[in-house]
């Protein structure tokens, strides 16, 4: 903890802050707010009710209107501070609203109905976390089914992506054959092809194979990525050829050289590609929406669309489930983030 405090109080001046230190900290603070304020807003808004999300001006914290149980009424009634004609303020519960008039009752003596103008009352609000935003989808929707499908697709696709791309990167980096550079250029050039151009041909292939409404139709098409091949090929160029030649002299097969030497030494680049692959597959919406039409096969991103109706969108559920979908990505990034700098920094070295 002392080391963190010392790091945060570093300055260029000798024992005092220089103007450049103040500018640097203000710049870093601004960058931190720009990056994390939307996430903070998302998390706090996920605990708001539907009415709280539509309130204007919006609140940062999840405030909700206080309700009170009144004798003679089945449901709790919303509570208001009402300014009476004599200037006094009373807390009354609203029975109903008719136009610009609110019909109120005193919770302690609900026999008399008091009519007041809606401009003479203000909501009594309290800080409340709407945990039902998280629990209701688990009961009313197939959230756990969508979560299972997303995990299956993400894990399987990431494993296949790492295997195929590492093999391609190993071949292009460590084997000298005619046309290797041309093949590499062709692979990289596919990055310039928009995804919308290949959607129909890939869909026709998937349909011909019979992988419609099958998770394989979501997993396999994007298994080999030009980004992954480029990343791993460039990293594997930094592995000394002498190390691989010595293994071959000792009798190691090509598979053993690849699996027991190249793969462990490429762990930083593999970790970076794993993070990218998990993010791509976990957040993918368009391709699963095209391939899958049965709800029991939907991934989380497609399942979230079920909260949006033609005339109404349940934003409190959408935000809560969005927070849930962010947790696995955050966990993967936290576990593998130490490899990102090493993997990317050494990618362009020879």
In words, what does this structure look like?
The protein is α+β, with helices and mostly antiparallel strands. It contains 16 helices and eight strands. Strands 2, 3, 4, 5, 6 and 7 form a six-stranded antiparallel β-sheet that branches. The radius of gyration is 29 Å and the shape is elongated. The chain starts with a helix and ends in a 5-residue tail after the last helix. The relative contact order is 0.10.
TL;DR of this structure?
The chain is an alpha+beta fold.
List the helices and strands and how they pair.
Blueprint: H1 2-8, H2 19-45, H3 50-54, E1 63-65, E2 67-68, E3 77-83, E4 89-98, E5 101-106, E6 109-117, E7 121-123, E8 125-127, H4 132-140, H5 143-174, H6 180-189, H7 195-209, H8 216-219, H9 226-236, H10 241-249, H11 254-265, H12 267-283, H13 286-291, H14 300-304, H15 315-336, H16 338-345
Antiparallel strand pairs: 1-8, 2-3, 3-4, 3-7, 4-5, 5-6
Helix pairs in contact: 4-15, 5-9, 5-12, 6-9, 12-15, 12-16
């Amino acid at each position: 903890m002392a080391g963190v405090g010392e790091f945060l109080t570093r300055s260029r001046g000798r024992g005092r802050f220089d103007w450049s230190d103040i500018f640097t900290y203000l710049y870093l603070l601004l960058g931190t707010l720009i990056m994390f304020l939307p996430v903070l807003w998302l998390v706090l808004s996920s605990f708001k009710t539907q009415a709280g999300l539509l309130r204007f001006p919006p609140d940062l914290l999840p405030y909700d209107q206080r309700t009170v149980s009144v004798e003679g009424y089945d449901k709790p009634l919303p509570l208001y501070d009402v300014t009476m004609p004599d200037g006094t303020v009373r807390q009354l519960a609203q029975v109903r609203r008719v136009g610009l008039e609110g019909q109120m009752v005193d919770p302690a003596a609900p026999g008399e109905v008091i009519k007041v103008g809606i401009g003479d009352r203000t909501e009594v609000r309290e800080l409340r976390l709407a945990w039902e935003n998280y629990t209701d989808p688990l009961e009313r929707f197939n959230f756990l089914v969508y979560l299972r499908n997303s995990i299956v697709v993400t894990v399987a696709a990431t494993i296949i992506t790492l295997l195929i791309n590492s093999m391609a990167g190993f071949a292009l980096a460590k084997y000298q054959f005619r046309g290797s550079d041309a093949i590499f250029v062709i692979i990289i050039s596919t990055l310039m092809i928009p995804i919308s151009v290949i959607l129909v041909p890939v869909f026709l292939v998937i349909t011909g194979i019979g992988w419609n409404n099958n998770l394989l139709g979501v997993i396999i098409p994007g298994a080999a990525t030009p980004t992954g091949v480029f990343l791993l090929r460039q990293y594997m160029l930094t592995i000394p050829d002498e190390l691989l030649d010595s293994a071959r002299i000792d009798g190691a097969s090509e598979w053993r050289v690849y699996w027991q030497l190249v793969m462990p030494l490429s762990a930083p680049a593999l970790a970076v590609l794993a993070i990218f692959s998990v993010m791509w597959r976990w957040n993918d919406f368009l391709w699963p929406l095209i391939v899958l039409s049965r709800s029991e096969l939907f991934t989380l991103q497609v399942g979230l669309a079920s909260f949006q109706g033609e005339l109404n969108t349940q934003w409190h559920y959408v935000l809560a489930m969005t927070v849930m979908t962010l947790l696995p990505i955050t966990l993967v990034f936290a576990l593998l983030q130490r490899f990102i700098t090493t993997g990317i920094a050494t990618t362009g070295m020879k």
